[in-house]
Amino acid sequence: MKALLLVAHGSRRKQSNSEVVTLSEKLSTKCSTDFPIIKAGFLELSSPSISEGVQQCISEGATTVVLLPYFLNSGRHVVEDIPNIVKSIQEKFTAVQIKIAPHLGASDLMLDLLISSAKKV
Amino acid sequence: MKALLLVAHGSRRKQSNSEVVTLSEKLSTKCSTDFPIIKAGFLELSSPSISEGVQQCISEGATTVVLLPYFLNSGRHVVEDIPNIVKSIQEKFTAVQIKIAPHLGASDLMLDLLISSAKKV
Q1: A11, A104, A118 member nearest B73 (Cβ)
Q2: Mind telling me the catalytic residues of B?
Q3: Which of A16, A26, A102 comes nearest B74 by C-beta?
Q4: Residue A70's pLDDT band (boundaries 50, 70, 90)?
C-alpha cells in the first residue's frame, strides 16, 4: 500500500503549518486511489517530524512511502537534509520502500501556476 | 506598461537563486503580452533586492509592478515583510502602482502540481 507524505519546512507561524495539513487533507480527497494514506510531516519547527510522519504511514500499513517535498528550490533542505533523513529512516525500516518525489519548482506546471497567480491582481 | 517581479526568499546556495532567475526568464517567454517587463528580486541573501528589482522595472518604463511572491505558505515573509517593503517603495514612487499577487500556496492549481509531482516516482 502506497503512502504520500507531504514534507514542508515548518514555520513558527501556526497558520502556515495548518495550511500544509489542510493541503494534505485536500490531496486525500483527490488522489486516494493512488495513495490510500496521505500525511504531512515537517523538517523543523512543527510536528509530526518527517520521521514521525513516515512511521505513521508505516503503522497504517504503508509498504511504500513517497515523500513529496513542499519546497520551491533545490536548496540545502531538498538536496541534503531530506535525503539524509530518508537514508536514516530507510535503515530502520528495510521492508518499506521510501522514495522522494521531485520538489515543486522542478514541475512543468509551475509556470502555469505562476502566470495564473500573477493575473489575479 | 505592466511589469512582473518574481519575488523569492533568496538562498545561500547560488543554484537556488539561479533557478529563480531562470524561472523569471521562462515566464518572459510565456506571458510577455501581459507583462512586457519581467524580473526577479530577492527578500534576502541574494541580489537584486525587492526594492532594486522594482526600480529596475520602473527604469524600464513600468507604470504598474506586480510582485509575485514565490512562497508556498502565508508565513511572516508573505504576510508582513513583503507588504512592508512594498509600502516603503510605494511611498517613494507614487506615480507607479505596486501590487502584490497571491502567494503560490493559495492557488487552486497547487493540488494538480502536487499530484503530478507525487506520481513521478
Answers
A1: A11
A2: 9
A3: A16
A4: very high
The grid cell for A26 is: 485536500
Q: What is the DSSP string of B102-117?
A: PPGGG-THHHHHHHHH
What is the β-pairing status of strands A2-8 and B37-42?
unpaired
A104 lies within 8 A of chain B by CB: yes
Query: Which residues have a Cβ under 8 Å from the Cβ of A86 and sit 6 or more positions away?
Result: A50, A67, A98, A100
Judge: A114–B27 Cβ closer than 8 Å, yes or no.
yes
**Roughly what angle, to the nearest 10 degrees, separates helices B109-118 and A14-31?**
70
Give the pLDDT confidence of B17-65 residue by residue, as tens digits. Answer: 999 999 999 999 999 999 999 999 999 999 999 999 999 999 999 999 9
